């Protein structure tokens, strides 16, 4: 459970033992994991990692899942060479650590990735998904970037952008009912602000009994009762992208 010494429990219990189906590439100053479907497509999804970085097998598994559903998927290193958080790190230093990795200051990297997807991959319709830290980054991009078509924010840390809700693009928000990092009162506040200010399609969905990180963690082997909600969250994510890309 989250507490003051562990403010972001993305690492609870169950990393994948997963190698990935794609390849690592260099995109200007950014390293990235890219996976492409066998059939040609002009649809792509940028996958924004959580605090554990672009090489986390769980995140690459989701990128490959997107490819299985017909999308070019790319997971760039949005920390740009700065180290990812390690479970062995002292959680008491987390606040200082995350200050040097601002989810609202990734615009330069996103522009580089968009250019790569358009010029090198033939992508014309591009969306974005992100987890935790990356979920906050999705909210930032949906507020600001005109070139993306849709977004899915999975348990994004609302408090980093809680005063802004005038989204530019259709955005789906996934939250767990028992997420200690994103309390339900924050989710309720977000919904109210979106209802007042948002002019595009959006949806906020809370999944019963689920904790932080549930969609991109391998909970099936630990809590079988969570499996339907994990599968539902993944299906909802794909359906949202299918609808708007």
Automatic annotation (TrEMBL):
It comes from the Eukaryota. One of its GO terms (molecular function) is hydrolase activity. It is found in: Cytoplasm, Cytosol. Gene3D superfamilies: alpha/beta hydrolase (3.40.50.1820). Keywords: Cytoplasm. InterPro entries: AB_hydrolase_fold, CMBL, Dienelactn_hydro. One of its GO terms (cellular component) is cytosol. Residues 30-245 form the Dienelactone hydrolase domain. Coiled coil: none annotated. It holds the Pfam family DLH. Belongs to the dienelactone hydrolase family. This is Carboxymethylenebutenolidase homolog.
């Amino acid at each position: 459970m989250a507490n003051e010494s562990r403010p972001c429990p993305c690492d609870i219990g169950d990393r994948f033992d997963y190698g990935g189906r794609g390849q690592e590439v260099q995109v200007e100053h950014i390293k990235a994991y890219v996976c492409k479907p066998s059939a040609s497509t002009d649809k792509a999804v940028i996958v924004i990692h959580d605090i554990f970085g672009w090489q986390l097998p769980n995140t690459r598994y989701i990128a490959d899942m997107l490819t299985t559903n017909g999308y070019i998927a790319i997971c760039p290193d949005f920390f740009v060479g700065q180290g990812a958080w390690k479970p062995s790190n002292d959680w008491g230093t987390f606040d200082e650590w995350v200050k040097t990795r601002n989810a609202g200051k990734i615009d330069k990297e996103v522009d580089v990735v968009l250019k790569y997807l358009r010029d090198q991959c033939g992508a014309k319709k591009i969306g974005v998904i992100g987890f935790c830290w990356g979920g906050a980054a999705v909210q930032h991009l949906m507020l600001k970037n005109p070139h993306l078509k849709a977004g899915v924010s999975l348990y994004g840390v609302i408090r980093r952008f809680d005063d802004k809700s005038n989204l530019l693009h259709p955005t789906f928000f996934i939250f767990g009912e028992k997420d200690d990092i994103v309390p339900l009162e924050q989710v309720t506040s977000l919904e109210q602000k979106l209802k007042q200010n948002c002019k595009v399609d959006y949806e906020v969905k809370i999944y019963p009994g689920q904790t932080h990180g549930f969609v991109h963690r391998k909970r099936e082997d630990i809590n079988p009762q969570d499996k339907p909600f994990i599968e539902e969250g993944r299906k909802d994510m794909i359906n949202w992208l299918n609808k708007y890309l």
